[in-house]
Amino acid sequence: MAPIKLAIVGVGKIVRDQHLPAIAANGSYELTATASRHGTVEGIPSYPTIGAMLEAVPDIDAVSLCMPPQYRYEAAHAALAAGKHVFLEKPPGATLSEVQDLKRSADEKGLTLFASWHSRYAPAVEAAKAFLAATTIRSVNVIWKEDVRHWHPNQDWIWQAGGLGIFDPGINALSIVTYILPRAIFLTKASLEFPENRDAPIAADLRFTDIAGLDVHAEFDWRQTGKQSWDIVAATDAGEMVLSEGGAKLSVNGELKFSAPEAEYPALYARFAALVAAGQSDVDLAPLTHVADAFMLGRRKFVDSFFD
Fold it and tell me: What residue stretches are annotated with the Gfo/Idh/MocA-like oxidoreductase N-terminal domain (predicted)?
């Protein structure tokens, strides 16, 4: 089968670090064009806007959208209108309603729309899901704390309305939790900390439960220096399960049970190719729904101004 002629829109750090190596290593793709205000890829035709790219290179099959979420809807709509399959970097959009509209449009046109949650493809996530399915879960504690100055230096968009703030990394944790737990959870309480000079939160404390009364507690914070924390801890009848390092390692009662090299983006692009081949879409909005719920239910606390 001929490779998928793929274009990337929004050439930034995540594209260079993750998307380009994954695409280059997958024979299902041929990188055909890029569109970005500033970034380019050596040897690949580049255009200032997605509209200019689609007009100049009409034989593109699919588009990977990697710009900030506030600008993704119009680009995705344009790509679908032009008959292209669409890969959405996480989060899939700035609002639930716009992503739902994109899904309707993709379905009507028989195109693939993929809301990619890369953390679900971390090496030990499937093992954690299987472990939890075989036991009774008593409680879950999620600790997702990192240094925003290290991971998002001088990225003003992430602090703007729609940029999600601490939920940009926190949604990774929520994507894993909503995948590995056997029942749907829903938010009951939230506290969000907003720097006085920013429109998005720097920290969040969330409480969830499910139909059986499971206690799920999540702590997200962007002010952590030193060792970063990306852990999900579950107390179960089979022992304490710890999914650590963002889903890379699984331990039970302190004993390492599963560990493998990180390969999230190669797995995402393999999934996208399979969806295109099958004529299917994958648009799970559960993680983004929980973020929206946090903004609706959360109590707001203003804290000291934040400067990069």
Answer: 4-114
